[in-house]
Amino acid sequence: MEAADAKTAIRDAALELGFDAVGFARPELADEARRNLGEFLTRGYHGDMGWLATRAAERGDPQTLWPEVKTVVVLGLNYAPETDALAGLADKSTGNISVYARGRDYHEVVKSRLKALARRIADLGHGDLKVFVDTAPVMEKPLAMSAGIGWQGKHTNLVSRGWGSWLFLGEIYLSLELEPDPPENDHCGACRACLDACPTQAFTAPYRLDARRCISYLTIEHKGHIPAGLRPAIGNRIYGCDDCLAVCPWNKFAQTAHETRFATHHAAPELAELAQLDDAAFRARFAGTPVKRTGRDRFLRNVMIAIGNSGDKGFLPVIEERLRDASPLVRAMAVWALARIGDAASITKRREAALADETDVDVRSEWQQAGPSERS
Ligand code: B12
Ligand code: SF4
Ligand code: SF4
Question: Is this structure's pTM higher than 0.85?
Answer without folding.
Answer: yes
